[in-house]
């Protein structure tokens, strides 16, 4: 595994610092958010501003925020990964993050790598969302861009979408008299060269815009005044000028 593939704990300190100023595959929908008239959408503008702030300050912007839904998903992610392996027989290699081969400021954090060219994306949604995905029977549209960018970053040919809901029945009795484990829904997304190229162009464009924003910042501010030089006292003469009696 080459140096673009970094082993570390996801959501740990190293992982968080790696995201500072970098675009993430998980934010692909934000990067590609444009209005019908072709202008930048609100989500894209907000994400661009967030990344601009991180580049300028070197500080992460609210990455420690974890909603109740996210907290729930994180708690069951390992269980979902084990369930996937039991169902498919595929061994999953956990990874911290992967850097894009040509855009070093673009990274992805798949929930696992499988073999030489596969990946895993785990979601632990609300039950109503889980059932909607199951009924549709395909990889949800809202997660495809993220998965395509994972393929672009890690050179993958496919990513398995794995939705897991521990609240669903483990042994639901069907009309045929058989028992069914309803907790896991898996669908595969194959690489699509056109979709991946479109996303890579979108990520490259927003990086150029962030760089242009940084270059334009000086015009909004006055030139910094040089720091005054304070000459350090020489020898012990300066001690004689202090009224030590008055300090008592």
Number of strands: 10
Binned strand content: 5-15%
Global mean pLDDT: 91
- Biggest sheet character: 4 strands, mixed
What form results from the Cα inertia axes? elongated
Q: How are the strands ordered across the major sheet?
A: 1-3-4-2
Separation of the first and last Cα atoms: 68 Å
Question: Total domains, how many?
Answer: 1
String of helices and strands? EHEHHHEEEEHHEEEEHH
The second-level CATH architecture is Alpha-Beta Complex
Give the C-alpha Rg: 26 Å
Unreliable runs = none
Structural class: alpha+beta
Number of helices: 8
Share of helix among residues? Answer: 25-40%
CATH topology: Lambda Exonuclease, Chain A
CATH C-level label: Alpha Beta
Give a brief description:
The chain is an alpha+beta fold and 248 residues long.
Structure description:
The radius of gyration is 26 Å and the shape is elongated. The protein has eight helices and ten strands. It has 248 residues and is α+β, with helices and mostly antiparallel strands. It has one domain (5-220): Lambda Exonuclease, Chain A, CATH 3.90.320.10.
List the helices and strands and how they pair.
Layout: E1 5-6, H1 13-18, E2 23-24, H2 28-31, H3 42-57, H4 68-88, E3 97-99, E4 106-108, E5 112-114, E6 118-123, H5 127-136, H6 141-154, E7 158-164, E8 172-173, E9 179-180, E10 184-190, H7 193-216, H8 244-247
Parallel strand pairs: 2-4, 6-7
Antiparallel strand pairs: 1-3, 3-4, 5-6, 7-10, 8-9
Helix pairs in contact: 3-7, 6-7
List the keywords.
10 strands; elongated; four-stranded mixed beta sheet; alpha+beta; 8 helices; 248 residues; Lambda Exonuclease, Chain A
